[in-house]
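hey can u check if this looks right to u? its 113 residues, i copy pasted from the old doc so theres a chance i mangled smth
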Amino acid sequence: MNAVLALLGLAAVLVVVAYGVSVVLAPLREPAAVLPYESGLLPQQHAFSRYHVRWYAVTILFLAFDMEMIFMYPWAVVVADMGTTAVVEMFGFLLVLLVGATYVWREGALRWS
């Protein structure tokens, strides 16, 4: 328990020191330097207005299949021990992902024209 508290204390001290060093060594910040573009030009539109709404559906689809891989690796290790129950549960999970992918496809989020 003491080691955990010491590690947390050390991490807190390092964060405070790093923040302090960045404040001291950072050049004076101009208002244009903290805007979304740092090319010297002021932005012409809001940062969120640049992205088409279909990117959100594609992102959700990517995250769904990313979570599938996160769950399938440990499942592959224990499927032989758990037997038929694990296979049925994984097919149920894949069915939910298939429903999500079908929804995104039917909404046209995967059309790039």
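The helical segments are 2-25, 54-82, 84-106.
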